[in-house]
Design a protein that fits this description.
The complex is a heterodimer of chains A (172) and B (155). Chain A has 172 residues and is of the alpha/beta class. Chain A contains 8 helices and 8 strands; from the N terminus they run βαβαβαβαβββααβαα. Chain A has one domain: Alpha-Beta Complex (sialyltransferase cstii, chain A), CATH 3.90.1480. Chain B has 5 helices and 4 strands; from the N terminus they run E-E-E-H-E-H-H-H-H. Chain B has a 4-stranded parallel β-sheet with strand order 2-1-3-4, with helices on one face. Classes of the chains: A alpha/beta (172), B alpha/beta (155). At the A-B interface, helix 1 and helix 3 of A face helix 1 of B.
Chain lengths: 172, 155
């Protein structure tokens, strides 16, 4: 069984990442949007629903910092943006989940910095006022993610539950 | 070169080149100091990590709570200093993430030698074995830690 980490843009992303590695081992990382610009490691995929931004300014910004390219760049131009039956958008965070589970074939994922709450981004102190507008998309995707996704906080944790060491190890 | 990031004219702009923070795409070469007007934590962090002196003006307290990469993520130990880091002979038996009495973990030790983040024991072993191989080539002292300049790493 393989487990990936999903890195989102909430201000808890680094804290969640550390908490995840305290719980267990992981087989890969998928990052969504801005966090891929400055993340020192290499993602299995850097994803976004904003292909015009990711493929040009964000990739260029990462290279200017002298950081290595991520293994893959996947946007809504390369793959389906939603799970089957998901009618509403779920933000780039849910798109990252879809890429990790469907396109990359990971068995389970743990969300870091993807609370989907009206809180700050790691690089922007203002609250994300559109968070709730994406909740319906996550609810619609539940048949695909209920047993395979856990989150460290916020709405997504209420919806999917929190990870623990046994779940990450595949023992539950 | 001294820069000021501001969206409007400011008394501190004399002698500094003006940049609009909305269009920030990364740090510029040759910058000695930066003045940032307003809440632009990403710009502040980027120049700060590059060792450039940063002065923030009119920053609200909320912006100072913005998260930044933890030290082990943003500042890997330089290659020429890695040889001084103690690697115990029984490093293979270290716990992955929950420290024992000495506080040493496989994850924490490997993070010193990896340029990116270490996600599992396999990656940790690769990073540590590469460091041991590098030391063998260079003749760096290993084993009981004698002659090591740095103490074991606590996580």
């Amino acid at each position: 069984m393989t487990v990936a980490l999903i890195l989102g843009g909430a201000d808890c992303v680094y804290r969640d990442f550390e908490a995840a590695l305290d719980l267990g081992e992981f087989d890969g990382v998928v990052g969504a949007n801005h966090v891929g610009i400055t993340w020192p490691g290499i993602f299995d995929a850097w994803v976004s629903l904003h292909p015009d931004r990711l493929k040009r300014p964000w990739v260029a910004s990462r290279r200017r910092r002298g950081l290595p390219d991520h293994k893959a760049v996947i946007t809504s131009e390369e793959t389906e943006r939603r799970f089957p039956g998901q009618e509403n958008a779920g933000s780039s965070g849910l798109f990252a989940v879809k890429v990790a589970l469907v396109d990359l074939g990971f068995d389970r994922v743990v969300l870091c910095g993807v609370p989907l709450t009206r809180t700050a981004h790691f690089d922007d102190p203002t609250d994300w006022k559109y968070a709730e507008s994406y909740h319906e998309g996550w609810t619609q995707a539940l048949p695909h993610i209920r047993d395979r996704v856990r989150s460290f906080g916020g709405f997504t944790q209420q919806l999917l539950g929190a990870p623990d060491a046994a779940w990450i190890a595949g023992d539950s | 070169m001294d820069l000021i990031y501001s969206q409007s004219r400011h008394p501190l702009m004399d002698g500094r080149q003006l940049r609009n923070p909305r269009f920030f795409q990364g740090i510029e070469e040759g910058v000695k100091s930066v003045v940032i007007i307003g809440n632009w934590p990403l710009i502040s962090a980027a120049y700060g990590l590059a060792g450039v002196r940063v002065q923030e003006i009119d920053v609200t307290p909320a912006s100072r709570s913005v998260a930044l990469p933890p030290p082990e993520l943003k500042r890997p130990v330089p290659t020429d200093e890695r040889g001084q880091v103690y690697i115990p002979e029984d490093w293979v038996g270290l716990p992955w993430s929950r420290p024992t009495d000495a506080g040493l973990t496989l994850r924490g030790l490997a993070a010193v030698f990896a340029d990116g983040s270490v996600l599992n024991k396999t990656q940790a072993s690769v990073a540590i074995n590469e460091e041991l191989a590098r030391r063998a080539v260079l003749g760096v002292i290993t084993g009981d830690g004698s002659g090591q300049a740095l103490p074991p790493i606590n996580q």
